[in-house]
Amino acid sequence: MHQSEKAGKGHRKGATILVIEDNKDQWAFIQRALEATFADFKPIWVPNVQQAIEYLTDCQKIGLRLPYLILLDLYLPEREVGWQLLEQIRSLDDPIGQLPIILLSSSDDKDDITHSYERGITSYIIKPTNYPAWVESFQTLKEYWLDTVSLPGSSSYF
Amino acid sequence: MHQSEKAGKGHRKGATILVIEDNKDQWAFIQRALEATFADFKPIWVPNVQQAIEYLTDCQKIGLRLPYLILLDLYLPEREVGWQLLEQIRSLDDPIGQLPIILLSSSDDKDDITHSYERGITSYIIKPTNYPAWVESFQTLKEYWLDTVSLPGSSSYF
């Protein structure tokens, strides 16, 4: 396996995770749990659609590192807003359009889950209700996307 | 959380994982590692494109349970065959078209990884080279897709 395809621990310094979340309290939870699990990563918080698109297009234009993962809240504050943003991100040029998008939502509604997959999310995670469960979810997220899976263009993230 | 959305252990009995792999020795490895990790699941092996499509359309037509995950080898034996099958599966009616497709390949070629994501895989895993590493990969796969993520239409699999 080429080192360029699997991220050695030393290369992760400065890699980012983009968190799109309109609720500041939820963000505080997510930030704390990310810091406990993705220790070498910098979480980037954007609270709305406009700043999310701005951040991602800046990555392209001014050569910022692409986020390794995108964590997307569905209800921003309506689910239609989350879905619209999802479709916008998926329509951006590769490799941005291919980034794993993990939807985090308090909703366990069947339609929310199905329609989110139809519109291009990679996975749907129902938001945990306590801090230890957040940490456990993010630990699994890390073991899966960092230690097990190979993503395209890994040189863009690290 | 509704029980229907998260698979309780008791509901997994009889759930399946579809493995599309043209190499019998690789299949033997995969089968053994799946049995060690996805203990309640039945791995279904198909060695070629035709049987894969037949199996999936039978799921629709005669009401077989959908596989919970699809593990797809890329070189069948050419990568173009794997990609064509991938696109065929993604064009099937939902929820089959939305199933997580995990590509397993010995190739760590950057183009193989990028083009597989472009054509719709969910994740790309470079095949481990020894049995303990297979078990570790599948253990992570299970913790992620079964214990952390919610999939659409879970009643179809269990």
From TrEMBL, chains A, B:
Limits of the Response regulatory domain: 16-142
Q: Any one Gene Ontology biological process term? A: phosphorelay signal transduction system
Name one matching Pfam family.
Answer: Response_reg
Q: Note the superkingdom of the native organism.
A: Bacteria
The cross-references to SMART domains, in alphabetical order and at most eight, read: REC
Q: Mark the residues carrying the PTM 4-aspartylphosphate.
A: D73
- What UniProt keywords apply to this chain's record, in alphabetical order? Phosphoprotein
Q: Which PANTHER family would you find in this protein's record?
A: RESPONSE REGULATOR RCP1, RESPONSE REGULATOR RCP1-RELATED
Its protein name is Response regulator
The species this protein belongs to is: Larkinella terrae
